[in-house]
């Protein structure tokens, strides 16, 4: 397979494969976290045009503020009289969450994340590619080549599947899922069966693969909408505040408290 993170590579013996060296080509996209981001930024494909994603959903901004990131607090557009104007659109936001989640992946070659969102723009599931729970990350192979059982492919759970299984809501019916790559056929089946109604993806570079053809066919039959999102922001950087000074003050406070305690005991 050559659609997403756990799909089999060039091993011609595998029944999971086709696609020859498709993975080689794919990896250039599947490492989006490091490709254009020398710092701790999340690099996303450039926007083809400035567009307003999910227009009309701003009304939910206030009530959903609890899920908003505290990152990138600097804003040139901030004014005392009104709200910021350069905040993240919903689509950029959830796409970024999917990319951030991918940074948790232990896979040395491919990091993929997924984010599931309900109709109220609440995140109800996040996942990234990795081995099943209880299977230590260093006990199974991460290789992409070799005999089937010596590669990662029979063991890795795809981000979409993990996001669905990790849901923090009763179910994900009617939700939408944000992914970097158009889902493979195995994930497509899971997405459909879970009741997700929309797939928002960035890249469809394996559009012509059999796996993606099968996914499209099944999505079409089952009424799952597929939409490509072109990020409005090319790059999103998370910059943590410098808390060194505060940490030093904390240490000083603890030292003083300890000294006072010692003095108290000495009396
Ligand atoms: Zn998949």
From TrEMBL:
<keyword id="KW-0545">Nucleotide biosynthesis</keyword>
<keyword id="KW-0862">Zinc</keyword>
<dbReference type="GO" id="GO:0005737">
    <property type="term" value="C:cytoplasm"/>
</dbReference>
<feature type="compositionally biased region" description="Acidic residues">
    <location>
        <begin position="257"/>
        <end position="267"/>
    </location>
</feature>
<dbReference type="GO" id="GO:0004132">
    <property type="term" value="F:dCMP deaminase activity"/>
</dbReference>
<keyword id="KW-0479">Metal-binding</keyword>
<dbReference type="InterPro" id="IPR015517">
    <property type="entry name" value="dCMP_deaminase-rel"/>
</dbReference>
<dbReference type="InterPro" id="IPR016193">
    <property type="entry name" value="Cytidine_deaminase-like"/>
</dbReference>
<comment type="similarity">
    <text>Belongs to the cytidine and deoxycytidylate deaminase family.</text>
</comment>
<feature type="domain" description="CMP/dCMP-type deaminase">
    <location>
        <begin position="89"/>
        <end position="212"/>
    </location>
</feature>
<dbReference type="GO" id="GO:0009165">
    <property type="term" value="P:nucleotide biosynthetic process"/>
</dbReference>
<dbReference type="Pfam" id="PF00383">
    <property type="entry name" value="dCMP_cyt_deam_1"/>
</dbReference>
<dbReference type="InterPro" id="IPR035105">
    <property type="entry name" value="Deoxycytidylate_deaminase_dom"/>
</dbReference>
<feature type="region of interest" description="Disordered">
    <location>
        <begin position="245"/>
        <end position="267"/>
    </location>
</feature>
<dbReference type="InterPro" id="IPR016192">
    <property type="entry name" value="APOBEC/CMP_deaminase_Zn-bd"/>
</dbReference>
<protein>
    <recommendedName>
        <fullName>dCMP deaminase</fullName>
        <ecNumber>3.5.4.12</ecNumber>
    </recommendedName>
</protein>
<keyword id="KW-0378">Hydrolase</keyword>
<dbReference type="GO" id="GO:0008270">
    <property type="term" value="F:zinc ion binding"/>
</dbReference>
<feature type="region of interest" description="Disordered">
    <location>
        <begin position="1"/>
        <end position="83"/>
    </location>
</feature>
<feature type="compositionally biased region" description="Basic and acidic residues">
    <location>
        <begin position="23"/>
        <end position="33"/>
    </location>
</feature>
<feature type="compositionally biased region" description="Low complexity">
    <location>
        <begin position="65"/>
        <end position="81"/>
    </location>
</feature>
<feature type="compositionally biased region" description="Basic and acidic residues">
    <location>
        <begin position="245"/>
        <end position="256"/>
    </location>
</feature>
<dbReference type="InterPro" id="IPR002125">
    <property type="entry name" value="CMP_dCMP_dom"/>
</dbReference>
């Amino acid at each position: 397979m050559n659609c997403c993170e756990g799909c089999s590579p060039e091993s011609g013996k595998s029944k999971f494969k086709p696609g020859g060296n498709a993975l080689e080509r794919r990896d250039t996209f599947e490492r989006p976290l490091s490709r254009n981001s020398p710092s701790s930024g999340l690099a996303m494909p450039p926007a083809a045009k400035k567009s307003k994603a999910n227009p009309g959903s701003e009304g939910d901004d206030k009530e959903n503020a609890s899920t908003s990131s505290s990152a990138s607090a600097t804003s040139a557009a901030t004014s005392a009289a009104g709200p910021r104007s350069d905040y993240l659109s919903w689509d950029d936001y959830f796409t970024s969450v999917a990319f951030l989640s991918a940074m948790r992946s232990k896979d040395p070659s491919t990091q993929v994340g997924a984010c599931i969102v309900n109709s109220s723009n609440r995140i109800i599931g996040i996942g990234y590619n990795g081995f099943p729970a209880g299977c230590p990350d260093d006990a199974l192979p991460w290789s992409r080549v070799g005999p089937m059982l010596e590669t990662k492919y029979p063991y890795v759970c795809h981000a979409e599947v993990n996001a669905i299984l990790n849901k923090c809501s009763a179910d994900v019916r009617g939700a939408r899922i944000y992914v970097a790559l158009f889902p493979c056929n195995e994930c497509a089946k899971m997405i459909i069966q879970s009741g997700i109604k929309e797939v928002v993806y960035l890249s469809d570079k394996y559009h012509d693969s059999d796996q993606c053809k099968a996914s499209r066919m099944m999505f079409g039959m089952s009424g799952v909408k597929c939409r490509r999102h072109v990020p409005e922001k090319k790059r999103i950087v998370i910059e943590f505040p410098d808390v060194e000074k505060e940490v030093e003050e904390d240490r000083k406070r603890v030292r003083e408290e300890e000294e006072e305690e010692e003095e108290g005991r000495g009396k």
